[in-house]
Design a protein that fits this description.
Rossmann fold, alpha/beta, 4-stranded mixed beta sheet, 10 helices, single chain, 19% strand
Length: 324
């Protein structure tokens, strides 16, 4: 029975991955400072409440648990905040990742799944983005993730670390059993913001730009259900446990939906007229961002099961309605 340490496992994606690992028979230990995560989102195993900056506790945790692999989700994710508070992001997302890698090296843990992001690509020239697209991040959040990927490359070459970096596009949806879901504070993701509007917690949903060169003038994004994303993590883990080499993979469906389409689908799912507010474009928002995920499908045999916008929104809506 393999033992897996999850950093940031009380957060949105980490908690869904942890639950799936438990269902598949892994022994899971979660390490989270609960600054953004939630204790009740950890559905399996033990929770160590700690920060990656606390190297003494981190060392003790890794030494005592002796994991076969680490899944590293712990990070701040607000792009706008990263522009206002860059040092906060470089400290937490970059420096603390180095703390984790140093502790892993000290105790001989040589497998890592890294939670990366499409933000490493910045504003790409092509709308369909492959893993070999240039990494040109345009904000401190993307810069910090890019930096960690570079560190992983060097550690892999020098120290025998084997890692998989999974570059997420737009994770969405919730656990189909309704146990966990998306609870960011503040919330900045499109689908939960739309559903908070439907639930009466917001006055309207802003559409930032209606004059993009797309079929309805609004941005197009690749939304992936969080459980398909969780499955990609387990496939990456299995790949490393079977001595696969270091690699990177995009995580998306390979097609996108416009902001207007997402709002209309949410209106259909909820049966509620959701007011939309037209606003100015945001700086740095590309018209289209869609993942070329063929590498993930071919090399790791990933077969998504929830590639359906209505299903994504329905699971998210069921979760949103449970919130106080």
């Amino acid at each position: 029975m393999n033992k897996i340490l999850i950093t940031g496992g009380a957060g949105y994606i980490g908690s869904h991955v942890g639950a799936l690992l438990d269902e598949r028979g892994y022994t899971v230990l979660t390490y989270d400072n609960l600054s953004k995560g939630h204790r009740d989102a950890v559905l399996q195993g033990d929770l160590v409440v700690g920060d990656l900056a606390d190297t003494a506790l981190l060392d003790k945790t890794i030494q005592d648990f002796s994991p076969d692999a680490v899944m590293h989700f712990a990070a701040f994710i607000e792009v706008g905040e990263s522009v206002r508070e860059p040092l906060k992001y470089y400290n937490n997302n970059a420096a603390n990742s180095i703390n984790l890698l140093s502790s892993m090296e000290k105790f001989g843990v040589r497998r890592l799944i890294f939670s990366s992001t499409a933000a490493v690509y910045g504003s790409p020239e092509k709308s369909l983005i492959s893993e070999d697209s240039p990494m040109k991040p345009i904000n401190p959040y993307g810069q910090a993730k890019t930096f960690v990927e570079k560190v992983l490359q060097d550690a892999s070459a020098a120290k025998g670390l084997r890692y998989v970096a999974l570059r997420y596009f737009n994770a969405a949806g919730a656990d189909p059993r309704g146990r966990i879901g998306e609870r960011h504070d503040p919330e900045s993701h499109l689908i939960p913001l739309i559903l908070k509007t439907a639930a009466g917690r917001r006055k309207g949903i802003e559409i930032y730009g209606t004059d993009y060169p797309t079929y309805d003038g609004t941005c197009i994004r690749d939304f992936i259900h969080v459980m398909d994303l969780a499955d990609a993590h387990l496939l990456a883990l299995q790949y490393l446990l079977e001595d696969g080499g270091s690699d990177v993979f995009n995580c998306g469906y390979g097609h996108g939906y416009s902001v207007r389409e997402v709002i209309e689908t949410a209106r259909t799912v909820t049966g509620i007229t959701i007011p939309a507010i037209h606003a100015e474009r945001r700086l740095g928002d590309p018209a289209v961002l869609v993942a070329d995920s063929m590498k993930l499908k071919k090399k790791l045999k990933w077969m998504p099961r929830h590639d359906d916008l209505e299903y994504i929104i329905r699971t998210a809506w069921e979760w949103e309605r449970k919130q106080p």
